[in-house]
Design brief:
Blueprint (H helix, E strand, L loop, with lengths): L1 H25 L3 E3 L6 E8 L2 E8 L10 E4 L1 H6 L4 H10 L3 H18 L9 H14 L4 E4 L5 E7 L5 E7 L10 E4 L15 H14 L1 H13 L2 E3 L9 E7 L2 E6 L10 E5 L2 H14 L9 H9 L33 E2 L8 E2 L1 H9 L5 E3 L2 E5 L6 E5 L6
Helix pairs in contact: 1-4, 3-4, 8-9
Pfam families: FANCL_C (PF11793), FANCL_d1 (PF09765), FANCL_d2 (PF18890), FANCL_d3 (PF18891)
Catalytic activity: S-ubiquitinyl-[E2 ubiquitin-conjugating enzyme]-L-cysteine + [acceptor protein]-L-lysine = [E2 ubiquitin-conjugating enzyme]-L-cysteine + N(6)-ubiquitinyl-[acceptor protein]-L-lysine
EC number: 2.3.2.27
Length: 389
């Protein structure tokens, strides 16, 4: 009879060995304590945190009769999830599957309970206080309840106010913090284990000063012209769309490294209005003077005066789209204009594209759609919209 049962024992042993190897792969810190593989003790790791657990299996390895012994942190984390754990014990085919399911439950629990995240050692907080005292508490705009994310203020030589967000790592200052700010260039910080918040602030100030001329150029444009886009410019924006006349504007992209050099320009409006301006730009480009501001150069090269808040109301340049009857469509404003001088109706690119695409008479060549103006039926074209139809 032993010979009949021997293959079954071999099969069972093989299955246990297979499961053990899979378990070691998924949870290398959870190991069997006995030959029968009915007692497992160790740790399961979730989001870089280790939780102590002991799993007791019956002799037949039926999971539904298993018992779990957890550390107090794990018990606290699983509070309210007991029914799910019990359900997984009943339905999981083997221990490996159950451990994977348990990890999923713990990940959800950790996301729902941020207070369960690992707490830095006391040295972290004492180091943070020392660094803030050296920097000056007046530089602190805010700090979160976990003392991980700080917002520090800085003022450049022109009096502009800036804020840098610093997210500290649990092993601060050994680990470099994550820093971000409203800038048109990447915020790259040099960091060593001896660095501090003061080093971050100093490097931030140096970067601000390197961008001072760039911001001065844009500040003049924002102050002395009607900027159509962006609606509320941030310090990171390098583009300005400036009103020239009703349904006519110029889009300039300012170079952060050479802010007074000739920027990338794009004239927008009806062709009969834009073409003369484009010709002047091309003919007078040699007159560009890097010692003057971009705004003054644009006046000289285009031979125009820009409407300003002192001379015009912005509503004069806020014509609604002739299709959706709105000025702003999400962040876009009308930038397509009928070329017929008697019409000149503006449209959003997305609106005109959808309108022409729905006309049986329209045709498409590459990325250009040809059709008729919704108002005057004169020929009109539009590039394919970048928005999904």
């Amino acid at each position: 009879m032993c010979k009949w049962h021997e293959p079954q024992h071999h099969t069972a042993d093989f299955e246990l060995s297979r499961m053990e190897s899979l378990l070691v792969k998924e949870s290398p810190l959870l190991l069997p304590l006995n030959k029968e593989k009915t007692v497992y003790d160790g740790f399961i790791t979730v989001q870089e945190r280790d939780f102590r657990i002991r799993i007791l299996l019956p002799p037949d390895h039926q999971l539904k009769l298993a018992k779990l012994h957890c550390c107090w942190q794990l018990k606290q984390l699983l509070c309210g999830y007991e029914h799910i754990v019990k359900q997984r014990l009943h339905h999981s085919p083997d221990l490996v599957s159950f451990v994977l399911e348990l990890k999923t439950v713990l990940e959800v629990a950790l996301k729902c309970r941020p207070e369960c995240r690992s707490i830095p050692p006391p040295q972290y907080y004492s180091q943070l206080i020392i660094e803030m005292e050296d920097l000056g508490w007046d530089k602190l705009v805010s700090i979160d309840t976990e003392f991980r994310t700080l917002r520090l203020r800085a003022e450049d030589s022109s009096g502009r106010q800036h804020v840098v967000t610093v997210k500290l790592k649990p092993k601060h200052p050994v680990e470099a913090p994550w820093c971000s700010a409203d800038l048109p260039v990447p915020l790259a910080m040099t960091w060593t284990p001896q660095s501090s918040l003061g080093h971050v602030h100093t490097q931030f100030l140096l970067l601000l000063e390197s961008l001072a001329e760039f911001w001065a150029v844009l500040d003049e444009i924002d102050e002395k012209t009607w900027v159509l886009e962006p609606e509320k410019p941030s310090r990171a924006d390098t583009m300005r769309r400036i009103a020239i006349a009703n349904n006519v504007s110029i889009k300039v992209e300012v170079d952060t490294r050479h802010p007074k050099m000739l920027p990338e320009c794009c004239l927008l409006g009806a062709e009969h209005v834009v073409t003369p301006l484009r010709n002047k730009l091309n003919a007078n480009m040699h007159l560009w003077n890097p010692d003057c501001s971009i705004l003054q150069n644009l006046r000289d090269v285009l031979e125009i005066e820009f409407p300003s808040p002192a001379t015009h109301e912005k509503s004069s340049f806020s014509a609604e789209c002739g299709i959706c009857y709105a000025y702003r469509l999400e962040s876009a404003i009308p930038d397509q204009v009928c070329n017929d001088p008697r019409c000149g109706q503006p449209f959003h690119q997305a609106c005109l594209y959808e309108w022409l695409r729905g006309l049986p008479s329209s045709r498409q060549s590459f990325n250009i759609v040809f059709g008729e103006c919704p108002y005057c039926s004169k020929p009109i074209t539009v590039k394919m919209s970048t928005q999904k139809p």
